[in-house]
Amino acid sequence: MKTEIVVALVGAVGVIGTIVGTVVGARFQADGGHAQAAAARAAADTAARAAWHQTMRDLRWTVLSAYLRAAAEADEADEAAHRTGAPADVEAAKKAFHAYRLAYAEGELIASDAMIPALTTLNERMQRSHHEAMRRAPVTAAMRVLEDRRRLGDSAASRALQRLEDGMEQGLAQAGMVNIARTALRLVPETSARLYGLSIILSFGDAYEAIIDYASAARARSERLTIDRTRLVNVIEHCAS
Q1: DSSP H helices in 85-202
Q2: Within its chain, how far is the Cα of 106 from the centroid?
Q3: CA dihedral angle for residue 114, residue 119, residue 122, residue 124, rounded to 10 degrees
Q4: CA distance 202 to 17
Q5: What's 188's DSSP letter?
Q6: How far apart are CA 212 and CA 230, in angstroms?
Q7: CA distances from 98 to 63, 71, 78 (A)
Q8: Distances (CA, A) of 106 to 41, 101, 200, 232
Q9: Cα gap 27→5, rounded to integer Å
Q10: 3-state SS, residue 115
């Protein structure tokens, strides 16, 4: 009887051990499954973040490259308006600058915080350059008309230009130059010359010097713009690396 009881107890212990082993093994497997799932989620999150950052880098590069192209095109159009003062060139500069502004708005939205200062600086440079082009283009047109008339032998246009040039050489203040300009325009009685000359009166000072020595003024503008554009490109490349 005792032997049977011992055998039964041993058998029971074996069954219990098997059950406990199964439960413990299942628990270990469950824990391992959770760990694997957690590791898989972490890996997926890391991959998603890397993909998002890469997408943003690509998008920024695309948008900001388009912005830089628009800036270059607007600058070329502004220089043409500076150089000729022709109505067609002025209108083209306005259209190019409108396209530039749209490109800048897109760039501002996509740029990272590190890019904003350089982007803003270049935009301010572009704004000033366009403003100068629009302000000086009529002066250029006026000077071209007077110079063309002088080459054709128009003595009135020749005397008008001479008075303007003398006034600039004397370094007269704005008010003095306005008086000289008005006096000079009286030498050219045609209405068209008076309308052109009005822009000279309204836009004297550095505008006149920039027109007389266009090449030097254009070179200075280009150098300043190149510095700001290069700074932005360097920031973009640094953020993309």
Answers
A1: 87-110, 116-151, 155-169, 174-185, 191-202
A2: 9
A3: -110
A4: 104
A5: S
A6: 29
A7: 16, 10, 12
A8: 34, 9, 37, 15
A9: 32
A10: coil
Residue 212 backbone phi and psi in degrees, to 5 = -65, -40
Return the structure tokens found at 135: 């302000």
CA atoms 132, 138, 140, 143: torsion sign: negative
Give the residue carrying structure tokens 């230009």.
161
How far, CA to CA in Å, does 201 sit from each of 62, 89, 181, 197?
Answer: 45, 22, 6, 7
Q: Any idea what the Cα angle at residue 160 is, between residues 158 and 165, rounded to 5°? A: 95
Under 8 Å between Cβ of 182 and 163 = no
Whether pTM exceeds 0.70: no
Mapped onto helix, strand or coil, the DSSP state of residue 193 is helix
Nearest of 126, 9, 27 to residue 67 by alpha carbon: 126
Residue with tokens 């254009």: 218
Cα angle at 118 between 81 and 233, to 5 degrees?
A: 80
pLDDT in tens, 135-155: 888 777 777 777 888 888 888
Helix ranges restricted to H, 1-115: 2-84, 87-110
Which pLDDT band holds residue 210 (cuts at 50, 70, 90)?
low
Contact predicate 233/94, CB 8 Å: no
Write the pLDDT tens digit of every residue in 113-138: 899 999 999 999 999 999 988 888 87
Tell me if residue 172 falls in helix, strand or coil: coil
Q: Are 130 and 78 in contact (CB under 8 A)?
A: yes
Structure tokens at 182: 């008005």
